[in-house]
Amino acid sequence: MGLIEDIAATNLNEDGVVACSVYEGGRRVADIQVDESGAWTKKEGHVVWIGLWEPSRDLLLRVQEQFGLHDLAIEDAEHPHQRPKLEQYGDALFIVARTGQLIRGRVSFGETHVFVGKGYIVSVRHGTSTSYAAVRQHWETCPTALAKGEDFILYAILDFIVDNYMPVLDQIQEEVDEIEDRVLARPMTGADIERLYMLRRDLLRLRNAAAPLVEVCRRLTGTELPQIRPAMHTLFRDVTDHIRTVQEKIDNLREVLAFAFEASLLVGQSQETAIAKKLASWAAILAVPTAVAGIYGMNFADIPELKLTYGYPAVLGFIFVVCSVLYWRFRRNDWL
Length: 336
What we know:
alpha+beta, 7-stranded mixed β-sheet
């Protein structure tokens, strides 16, 4: 589900709310209003899962009132362009993650802010981001897993974010393969170099978005966060492995693009050298008749062989022989 479906979803709910549901034992028991979500968290065994997309300040303040969220966390959630991080505010966790999608050949980034506390999880999406409706629908078919609680939902969201980096990289990989195939055939044009630069810059930005999540997951597998049960540590370590795989693929693609650029320069230099050799060879060959004609074109009455009967054919034969020898030597040395 993408942006269009999100907008359709928000039309069914209040503005900015994609979904607001309560679960018991991993099963959805009701779709509720934001203003009644706090009361449901006080019921034993119930978890409220709220999904927001670019919410207004008023909506964020209502969510804050329901769960007692910290002012600083609400301020961060209201203003995107945060660096991926994990903050602990009292009994609640605040996680920032960057999302990425390939749109018209460029990587477009969005943000997801997640609040996690006892009996609730709230995701706030900004900008380009795939809807988490797919995550919700998938795990609703596995109530045993969803019954593990809000920390499992956090894992499912982070895993979904990291997994969505791979389709972006796969599409870039296809373009990089095409660049590799072309680079040895001909030097890069200005447009090729500009595209290569854009790809390397987008890959660097994607790496900067993904890499901090390693530290986020490391903290989620530590013992200092009571909101995350020890049984969940293995799952967050699995997310860490996925992030490192993404990092390795990004680094490999950037390296290939760097090699492609260097190879293109070498191919260009090789072609320029070949052209220079040809020009130098023909210049040397043409220098012989030019020099002889220049000598005989001087305005002197007494020039050797000037009055010989076969002087003209002899000079032409000399020019032909010397030029032929030069041509043969240059061809032998692969200059021509």
